[in-house]
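P.,

For your records, the input lines for the assembly:
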Amino acid sequence: MLNNIRIVLIGTSHPGNIGAVARAMKNMCLSSLYLVQPKIFPSAEATSRASGADDVLARAHVCNDLEEALQDCCLVIGTSARSRTLSWPVLDARSCAARVYQESQSHPVAIVFGREHSGMTNEELELCHAQVKISGNPDYMSLNIAAAVQIIVYEILMAERAGVDSGDIVVADDDDEALLASADDMALFYQHLEEVMIQTDFLNPQRPKFLMRRLRRLYNRARPDKNEINILRGILTAVQKNISE
Amino acid sequence: MLNNIRIVLIGTSHPGNIGAVARAMKNMCLSSLYLVQPKIFPSAEATSRASGADDVLARAHVCNDLEEALQDCCLVIGTSARSRTLSWPVLDARSCAARVYQESQSHPVAIVFGREHSGMTNEELELCHAQVKISGNPDYMSLNIAAAVQIIVYEILMAERAGVDSGDIVVADDDDEALLASADDMALFYQHLEEVMIQTDFLNPQRPKFLMRRLRRLYNRARPDKNEINILRGILTAVQKNISE
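C-alpha cells returned:
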C-alpha cells in the first residue's frame, strides 16, 4: 500500500539531491517519485547518488506542473520552512505520517517538497491540505531536502509498522541510587575476569574471543553499578589469592 | 541535557560525511561529536557539507580509539547493519532514543556509528550495551551514514520533546534463540557461586545475606540464558579445581 504514497519534488536544482531522495525512499519501502520541472534529469549524478535505488529513478514521473503530479491524490501535504502570513494547518512529521499512511489505504496521497532555496510558492501551497513541519533546532533549521525526505519516509514506515509487537521486555531495576559503572570500569572488570579464567584454565588464550564476547554481552545487559563491579572484582581477587600455583 | 549525548563516528573515510553528520546533529540540537581516527579531518569538504554547523566540527573531539571516545559513558549503543552469529540486544531507533534521552539526564551516553563500508568490528561492538537497528526495507537497507544519524538524532529530539518518561527500559533481544535460565538453574548457580566465595574467603558465612542479595539482583537483571549460566558455572568449577586447600 506504500505505492499509494507519492513523494513530489518541485524544481530541484541539484540532480544529486534527486538521487539522494530516491535512496532515502527505497530504504523505507517507498518508490513512487514525481519530479516537477527538475533542472537536470536524468543525470549521471542522480544515478550515482541513488546508490542502487536507480529503479526508483527509472520509474520517476517527470511532470510539467504540480497539478499534473497530484492527479488522483486525495490528500496533499506540503513542506515549507518559510513562515507565512496565511498559515496552513501544520502537522509534525509523525502525525503527518500517521495520516498519510491511513489515507493511503484507500487513495493516492502526496507529500510535496519545494525547491532547495525558495521552497514552495503560495500558489503551490494552496494545492495542499496541510503542511508538515519537521521538529528541530529553532536556532538552526537547515535540513537538506534528502534529509527532510529521509525523516518523513522513515516516519511513514514506522506508522505502517506501528502495530508490530515489540517482543521481550526487560524491566530495569531503577530504585538503586548507585552510579552505573562506566565504560572504563567495565573494561577493567573484563580484563580481570579474563585473567582469572586463564589462570584457572577455563579460557584458552589461543581462542578467547567467543567466550569473552558472551560474558560481555551478559554483563553489559545487566548494566552493573559501581558497587556491583567492586564486588565482582573482589571475588576475582579472592580467587586469585587462593589459586594453587 | 542533550550535551550528554555523544555521536561517535569510527574511521570515517569521506570528510563530506563528517560535515553532513554535523549538520544533521545541529538541526536536532545535538553538538557533541567524537571522531575516532577519521581518515581526513579537519577538511574543507567537511566544513562545506556542514553548511553552518561548523561550530559542531570545530568542537569535535578527535580520538585515537573507541575507548577514548567512550570515557565516562555509562550507556553505549552501537549501530551495525551486519548480522552476527552472536547477537546483541537490538533496539529500534525510537526505543533507542527514549533510552538514550532518559539516561542522558544523569550521565554521558554514546551512540557509535561504524565505518562507511565495514561498520564496527566485533571488538568495538563488545563495548556496547545494545545495538540500534533502524527499521527499513528488508530488501534494500543502504542508509548513508548521515541519513542514519539524521534519523537517530531526530528521534532523540522527538523523545526530548515528548518529555519521555519511559522509566522502564525495553530491550528487544529478538535474534537470540537460547532459552532463558530457569529459577532452578539460577538457584544452582547462586549456590555454586556462594560456595566458591566461601572457599576463597571472600564471603563470611556468618554474615552472608547482603552480599548474595546484591549478586542475585545483578544476575537476575541480566536475565541469563542457559548457555550463559553453563559458562558461569564452568568458571566456578575451574576455580574450585585450582583452589589451594
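Two observations worth noting. Chain A has ten helices and seven strands. Chain A has two domains: 2-161, 183-242.

Regards
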